[in-house]
Amino acid sequence: METDFLVIGSGIAGLTYALKIAEQHPDKKITIITKTDADETNTKYAQGGIAGVWDEQKDSYEKHIEDTLIAGDGLCNEAIVEIVVKEGPERIREIIEYGADFDKDEKGEYSLGKEGGHSENRILHHKDITGKEMERALLDRLNALENIELINHCFVVDIITQHHLGFLVTKSTLDITCYGVYVLNKQTNQIAKILSKITVLASGGCGQAYRTTTNPKIATGDGIAMVYRAKGKIENMEFIQFHPTALYEPGVSPSFLITEAVRGDGGILRNKSGEAFMERYDERRDLAPRDIVARAIDNEMKRTGTEHVYLDCKHMDREKFIHHFPNIYEKCLSIGIDALKHLIPVAPAAHYSCGGVKTDEWGRTSITNLYACGECASTGLHGANRLASNSLLEAMVFAHRSFLDSSSKINDIQIEHKIPDWKATGTSDPREMILITQSQKELTQVMSDYVGIVRTDVRLERAMKRLDLLFTETEELYRSTKVSPQLSELRNLITVGYLIVKGAQFRKESRGLHYNTDHQQKSELLQNIIL
């Protein structure tokens, strides 16, 4: 199969890019591939909203920039922060034109929320399902375009580069070029090649590397792992953001998210004694940045010997709460908790990867003709910690910038036709699926126990030894059996786990989301760790 533009992933980043390209180039073919259904993405589960300077009488670009830089703890790229903050409102206006419906107040003005780390109310939202609403608007508009083909249930196995033409490709190779991808059709179990002029990676995050995560089952770090195998540059993987308030339900995965907007509207964190403890950790209390709140909760849990703390919403206006957070209210009711009468048990859960595939200001990766946007990319916006509700904003801004850059190059790129078919000779079906499922359980246990909110050198060393063993066993299985989505996801998760641990070992300081009790002082030499 051949296409002009290949988009891997159907979240807000991938759909925004594909939509803009399709409208700009009606004569070009755009192909979107996703490994499940088109709307099953991290975007769908984004509750809180999208940040943007909307009320310029009360807010300003300078305030949003400063808030982002403070949250990023010294590692944000200031030029990128300025680009995203200043271009963001225009991208928000575009999705409103596409049909996205954000909540308004009784005066007909957009109702702007406030979340941790923000100095002003600037979060546009659609109740507590903002991401789902934005995804709906994009899919509705996209379905009307004839030059876009959306292929569901196809798993991308690898990025095609010169390596597949028999050339030696290393990290020092300067002209690594992407020619397309090998994909596994999950319905036929056949591997095909899709050749493309431009490939855009919008494959989402890697929360499934952890035992407890708010991410859906699909978030297995596929794009990041593929780029690393292709010798592309990955950076800042040690900065995994744990959302402070996931609903505590033992054994349930993924965890149900209790959006930060609940605390923005007045929700208070309390320990098992009923104490509002956040004032002991930060003057911003419950609205401190996520890294601070997550560590505070983790410390309270360890100090009191409990597996969760509580979110107190009993004092909040009932009608307003149910209107703004209907899904949270219904979810809590389904497990016997009336959020306006009872305390909600919450605990941190792996939520967002601030690092990923290194890109420049136009979404270009270190591999020619390969772009990345959304959570799989490391653009320089988030630094050591993402400011709440900046993720959807970043995805749209860099989808647009990737569109501008790739659109100007498409006519100068030729399809490479000499790519060999996927070779699967000498392999067999896996005899025991438990070899895959058990290894994945071991991986999530290692990452959660040793590479979580608080780390030590000994824990990281132990994690690396366990990952080395899992890697050896899994690669042996990969060589001797047929490729399956489950085996490929396991390989990708092990790769992502390695990148997180290696980045954490290299960073001899505590900064943002990376907190190592053996290196609690911050280094004066700020650096991004590129792997």
Based on the model shown, name its key terms:
alpha/beta; about 35% helix; Flavocytochrome C3, Chain A, domain 1; about 525 residues; FAD/NAD(P)-binding domain
Give a written overview of the molecule.
The chain is of the alpha/beta class and 531 residues long. The chain has two domains: 2-238 and 354-412, FAD/NAD(P)-binding domain; 240-351, Flavocytochrome C3, Chain A, domain 1 (Alpha-Beta Complex), CATH 3.90.700. Helices cover 34% and strands 15% of the residues. It has 13 helices and 16 strands. Strands 1, 2, 5, 6, 7, 8 and 15 form a seven-stranded mixed sheet that branches. A four-stranded antiparallel sheet has the order 10-13-12-11, with helices on one face. A three-stranded mixed sheet has the order 9-14-16, covered by helices on one side. Strand 1 (2-8), helix 1 and strand 2 form a beta-alpha-beta unit. Helix 1 (12-24) packs parallel to helix 4. The longest helix is centred in the C-terminal third of the chain and has 24 residues, at 457-480. The chain is globular and about 65 Å long. The mean pLDDT is 93.
List the helices and strands and how they pair.
Elements: E1 2-8, H1 12-24, E2 30-33, E3 50-51, H2 61-71, H3 78-98, E4 123-124, H4 130-142, E5 148-151, E6 154-160, E7 180-185, E8 190-201, H5 222-229, E9 234-235, E10 240-247, H6 261-264, E11 268-270, H7 290-304, E12 309-312, H8 318-324, H9 326-334, E13 344-353, E14 356-358, E15 370-372, E16 377-378, H10 391-407, H11 434-450, H12 457-480, H13 485-506
Parallel strand pairs: 1-2, 1-8, 2-5, 8-15, 14-16
Antiparallel strand pairs: 3-4, 6-7, 7-8, 9-14, 10-13, 11-12, 12-13
